[in-house]
Request: fold
Amino acid sequence: MTRQKVLVLYLANSALDAPVVAWAVYDGSDASRPMAGDNDDPPYRTGVDALKDGWRLIQAAQILPHERGAEFDLAYLKYEFFFEQLVQVAA
Amino acid sequence: MTEAPLLGALDMARFVARGFLRFDGVVPDEINAQFLTEVGQASDPVAGRKVIRAFGELLAGAAIPEAPAGVPLAGVYPQGSAVRRLLDLPLVKGAIQSLVGADPIFDHHFLHVTFPPAYHEAGGGENVSQHTHQDSTIDPAAGFDLQVMYYPHAVTRPMGGTRFIPGTHLRRVSEVALGRYQNIRGQQHMVCEAGTLLFLHNGLWHGGGVNLSDRTRTMFKIRMNPSQPQVGRFDVSTLPATPVPRPIFHVVTPQPESVEKILMTPEPWFEQDTGRLEFVNRIKLWRHLTGDLHYDADHWLTRLENPARAGFSA
Reply:
């Protein structure tokens, strides 16, 4: 049977070949327990490098216009890309 | 040198740019030992007892005053207590005064204790790090509160330590809505000697690290609000009379350390476009803290505020 493993990459701009600035891994196979602060080095240099390693892109952040009057307001990281792998686990 | 030395312009700029200042080993061992005695120690792990209960028992016995929010900080801690003595250290007094002015208001305090694996195993819980978050709630204010984090004993890397991400303090987010971000380039983990203080802008993203050592980790946090405008509270005599504009983009000569250089230094996690907005927001905070409403660094706001671009006047 299979389980989903999810990789979330935050890139320096909207291009998939832009550098990774933040990341997260969630592992439905239970083979690992990723958590906040567990690694100071990104798993890939860019989003494209994750594709080359077999990750399937399943969602990308939209590029949204800036609300008038709030152009300088910053909140969450903008360039979020979700990837998945299907991992075989013992039944 | 005054009795409570104020922060100079360069340290103030570092706080504005990165959202923190750290003072390593500045609290004397005698105060550290007194504090640890006052808060007491967690009892040994007990099978079936959850960590939250062990923590509750420790908190109940700790000699930390139960103080209401909104009272003067000066009246919260009894004379002679470890925290009162810490706050009276000239370096601490001067830094607090520089950031939130004299007579700050007590917001809250909390004893953070992170338990080692044996307690989680005994209680049947999972030993994980805290999600990264911004304290309190969405904060659109121009100024800020100060959070003083006190590390009364040495913190090693296996003990977890406070994780924080320099430069994130000017983002307006909603507490742990950003918990999805497990790791961010440039994140730091507090590894320090006993008696270290970390001064944080209330907006700085942070979280407690997982404790994989064999002892509890203790950190005491005090949040304080300014009671007066935060303008010109640091040592403004260290400001240059007139900032000298720097060359931008085409720069071939090394630039000296200056307020502008500090404010214009990016963090490793900066996105390429919003990193420039971070610079703009740092300039705005510097204007707020200096009262110089025309201050600029590297032409970012001068370009946008050029009155000639506003069109014809009536």
In short: Chain A has one domain: 2-88. The CA atoms of residues 24 and 36 of chain A lie 8 Å apart.
